[in-house]
Amino acid sequence: MKRYDPALYAILALIFALSCAYVPLAGRGGGEMTIEVVRDGKTEFRAPLGDVPEMLEFRGPEGYNAISSVEGVRMVSADCPGGDCIRAGTIKNAGESIICLPHRLTVKLTKESASEMDAVSY
Amino acid sequence: MNRTRRLVTAALLTSSALVAGLAESRFPLPFPGMRLGIANVFSLAALVSLGPAEAAVVSLGRLVMAFSLGGNAIAFACSAGGLALSLPVMTALYKIFPKSLSVPAISVAGAYAFNIGQLAAIAAIMRTHTVFAYLPPLLLAAAATGYAVGRTAEWIADRVKL
User: Fold this and answer.
1) CATH second-level architecture of B3-159?
2) Which of A1, A2, A38 to mutate to probe the B interface, most B CBs <10 Å?
3) Could you give the CA distance from residue B9 to residue B87 in angstroms, rounded to a whole number?
């Protein structure tokens, strides 16, 4: 341990604390819990979590993904070689997301209501 | 250290980094994007025993060669994004505070920078910033792996008398 080490570690701890604030900030909103599936920057599917079937399937130019929405949202199947999205596990809080990088697919939970979305989009 | 010795040492560290990185990719950690970062041992050893230019050569040389030996484009983009941030951070810390920062501390800072740069690259590819939700577990792991990598690099630079 050298003289400035504690200062550097303190800065890094601060960066870690800031990173923990991301999900609560991104998850703000007054609407009900909604699942949104975005491919390549475009929203492909959006519905309240309570209204979606237990299994959702998405086919895109790069491949196939299956999402389960029983007790949280998780990727159950994907035909990518890595399987990173499956290993990402279950998400439950607004602001969290699952990324399928090879298929450029993002599954996210949000509490932004449709009117808040419109305010952003238009 | 003469020119030839520097060149040979940098080449040796690059090839070691390449092999370590390939070996590591066979053992994925449980969370996506989480890496032990063993290849960075050799970049750091190059930084402390040779200098910033050689550290950049080891990192970037390893990146390009790993890609040409069958890496995929996405992994390449992620690593490039990570290095774009971690190399300047580690080099700057090492140059500005050579006596008052330890190698493990610089390594942890580099690991943090790498993870942030990697997620920035993914955010650019995916056109969404939601990927930053992955940051806390990645940074937590980076603190441990970065420290271990830094200690190992220090030990290698010291014992092997590069």
Assistant:
1) Orthogonal Bundle (1.10)
2) A2
3) 19
Q: Within 13 A of A121's CA, how many CA atoms are on the CB side?
A: 10
Structure-token pair, residue B156 = 């290698």
Q: Show the 3-state SS of B67-116.
A: HHCCCCHHHHHHHHHHHHHHHHHHHHHHHHCCCCCCHHHHHHHHHHHHHH
Residue A71: other Cβ atoms inside 10 A = 8
Q: Does residue A54 contact residue A72 with C-beta atoms inside 8 Å? A: no
Q: What is the pLDDT of residues A30-53, one digit of tens each?
A: 889 999 999 988 899 999 998 899
Q: Which residue do the tokens 């299994």 mark?
A: A55
**Could you tell me if A121 and A43 are in contact, meaning their C-beta atoms sit under 8 angstroms apart?**
no
Strand duo A34-39 + A90-91: pairing = unpaired
The two tokens of residue B13 are 């560290």
Tens of each residue's pLDDT in chain B, 162 residues = 789 999 999 999 999 999 999 898 888 788 888 889 999 999 999 999 999 999 999 999 999 999 999 888 888 999 999 999 999 999 999 999 999 999 999 999 999 999 999 999 999 999 889 999 999 999 999 999 999 999 999 999 988 876
| Domains of chain A: residue spans and CATH | 5-121 (2.60.320.10)
Q: Name the residue among B41, B26, B58 with its Cα closest to residue B106.
A: B41
The residues on A that touch B, with CB distances below 8 Å, are 1-5, 8-9, 12, 15-16, 19-20, 22-23, 26, 38, 40-41, 82, 84-85, 87-88, 95-97, 99, 101-102, 104, 106, 108
Encode burial over A13-23: b for 16+ CB neighbours within 10 A, e otherwise.
eeebeebeebb
Nearest CB neighbour to A106, from listed B93, B105, B130: B130
